[in-house]
Structures are given as C-alpha cells and as structure tokens.
Amino acid sequence: MTDVLAQLATVLEARKQADAGESYVASLYQSGTDKILKKLGEEATEIVIAGKGGDRDEIIYETADLWFHSMVLLAHNNIDYQLVLEELDRRFGLSGLTEKANRTKS
Amino acid sequence: MTDVLAQLATVLEARKQADAGESYVASLYQSGTDKILKKLGEEATEIVIAGKGGDRDEIIYETADLWFHSMVLLAHNNIDYQLVLEELDRRFGLSGLTEKANRTKS
Amino acid sequence: MTDVLAQLATVLEARKQADAGESYVASLYQSGTDKILKKLGEEATEIVIAGKGGDRDEIIYETADLWFHSMVLLAHNNIDYQLVLEELDRRFGLSGLTEKANRTKS
Amino acid sequence: MTDVLAQLATVLEARKQADAGESYVASLYQSGTDKILKKLGEEATEIVIAGKGGDRDEIIYETADLWFHSMVLLAHNNIDYQLVLEELDRRFGLSGLTEKANRTKS
User: Fold this and answer.
1) Nearest-neighbour CA in chain C from A31: distance (Å)
2) Which of A70-84, C30-44, C50-64, D81-95 has the lowest mean pLDDT?
3) In terms of CA atoms, which chain B residue is nearest residue C41?
4) What is the 3-state secondary structure of chain B?
5) Residue D42: closest C-alpha in chain A
6) Is residue C95 one of the residues assigned to a domain?
7) Which chains form contacts with chain B, at 3 or more CB pairs under 8 Å?
8) Does residue A104 belong to any structural domain of this protein?
9) Is the pLDDT reported for residue A2 higher than 90?
C-alpha cells in the first residue's frame, strides 16, 4: 500500500502526454494553475463539510480527493512528491518523534 | 521515504496520550474537530496562495502542512490513513492506470 | 446603490417559491446546506486566487460571487441579512470608529 | 442600517493612516495581500463550519467576519465596495429579478 503515492506520481507524469479530451488529469494540466487551485479549494471545503458531518466514509473519500489534487499540483509544477515527505520527515523529525513517542508509551 | 506516512501515523496515535501543553498535536485533539478543520482550511488557503505565487519551496512547505493536518483529522477520527491510500488505489485504479499510461507512452 | 442588498434579499426570499429547474437559487435551496457551503468555499478560493493575481475586475467579480452566495446561505437559514450588518456595526463600533477615524485624519 | 457598509468603507480608508500597532486593520494592510487573503480563507472555512453546524448566531458572526475581511481586501486594493454592489445589481439584474419574482409570487 505504501507505493500508492509512487504509482500515482508515475501516472500523473504520464498524463502530461495524454489528450485533454480523454484524461481528467490532462484536462486539469491544460486548464492551468488556477483551475487546479480551484479544485484544491473545493476539495478542502468538502473535507471540512465531511469532517464536521462526522461521516467516516466521506472523510476518507474527501481526503483521497484532496491528496489526489495536491499530487496534481505538484506534478504540474514538476515537484517530486517525495520532497513533501522529506519536509514532513524533517519538520516533524519523525524518526526522533517516533522514538520519543514509543518511549512515552512504554 | 515511503514509510514517512506510516511513521507519522504512529506518532499521531502516540500523541493521544500526550499532554496538550507539551504537544501541538495533543492540543489540536483537545481543541476538537472544529479547530482541526479550521487548521485544514487555513492550510488549504495557504497552498492556494503558494500555488498562485509559483514558489516551489512554498508549495512543498504548504503541501506538507496540508497533508500533516489531514493526517491529524484522520487520527482524531480513528481512521487508518491506509484507507485513504486504498481509496486512491481503488478510485483511480492505479495498477490499471499505470499500465495504460505506460502503453500510451510507448 | 445602498439598496442592492435589500433588493437581493427580496429576490432570494421570492425564489423559495420558484422551481429548481428554472432558478439557480431555487436549485441551491433544493440541493441543501452542503451544496450552498461548497459554493461558498469555491467562491472563497476564487477570491483568494483573484486577490493573489491582483486583477481588479476579477476581485470585484469574485467578491460579488462571495457576497451573493453568503446571502443565499442566510436566506436558506431564514436569517435577515441586516443582522449581519448589525453585527458589523456592533462589533466594530462603526459610529465610534468613524468618529475616531475622522479625528485621526484631522 | 443600509449605511453600515458605507461607514465601514470610510473607517477602512481612514485606517490607512493609522499605526499598525494600534489598529488591527492597519496591521493587516502592513502585512500585505497574502495575510489578508489568509484571513479571508480562514473566515470562509469558519462560515462553512458554522453553516454545517446550523447555529444561527455563529452563521451571523462568521458572515460578518467574512464581509469585513472582504471589505479590507477591497480597501487594500483601492476598490470602491460600491463596484461590488453594482456588479451584483448588473449580474443578477436585481430590478428585473425583483419584478419577475413578484410576478411569480402573485
């Protein structure tokens, strides 16, 4: 399951060669940055609505939508999604935090 | 790098035992759903601003923030983040899409 | 021009009797709260994009969209828009603030 | 009550001469466009949360916040708020719509 983001990144890269009429992702690329950002804003609103409503399936569904469109934004800007994971790793010091968390739990 | 989300999920779970005064994540849990959703909305706005500005480092930074807070929302609702990856895998049929993408490229 | 909000409120009230197939506002009412909130979130994202882009006409256009859909939310909840103006008046103490502002300028 | 927006616009204009340390609005102007847009995004998220929650007082309060910060955005860009009302009037053809709405009701 850990490779889903890697696979998605591969697909999003490949879609840059696709026809906008046949691929949703290609149509987003062609519409440009503003359209991608509007979709991101829409999905963020929908996750807020789902989160406030408290429906687990909707939260999962809308989070998937949000992650998907943020991956599209990264791809459109030729940014490797692994840089985001590295930023998470660096900022929240995950290795250290995990150790500390484990110590706290024991 | 693929294990960053798994490590983050472990940390977020451990933080449920932490003191709100000592952990940002614990303070978010304690403040409750509305506070977590407000943070998500803020981060979404910041990614839109960063995306419109076109600064790569800001896009990476804000995407990390957005993913982080959506992981907090999942943890707060006791939802395994892997269900989101499964949803991405299922909805976008990544295996199939990858094949198709590869065929399109060849 | 000051009566535009009053006229809009009258129209929005009248639309509660309209057919969803013939009126955009009636279709929003029928779709319900989540749909109206999604539109509000979309318009907010678009005003952020317009504001970051710095195009005056787009800022005006998107602000009109945002105010329109917030008026729809109020009408859908049977809330008089004048209560919002009263809140602005009360919270920011406009009479007092105006005086103080005028004094500051003189 | 119809003059609240006009009074607010006057105050917001006057605040351009104020010290950022003594006026919230002046501090927003000084922080710049990104900060004002972030506040707009935050307020939009809060109105979505309030609208989903269905609490009338919160809806009124958050709508006031949203209108206030959109008035700040207009002022920061030297845009007369009446242009937004004119856009609402023009786009939704309020005079005509009112007539049609009245006819529909009769």
Assistant:
1) 15
2) D81-95
3) B41
4) CCCHHHHHHHHHHHHHHCCCCCCHHHHHHHHCHHHHHHHHHHHHHHHHHHHHHCCHHHHHHHHHHHHHHHHHHHHHCCCCHHHHHHHHHHHCCHHHHHHHHHHHHC
5) A45
6) no
7) A, C, D
8) no
9) no
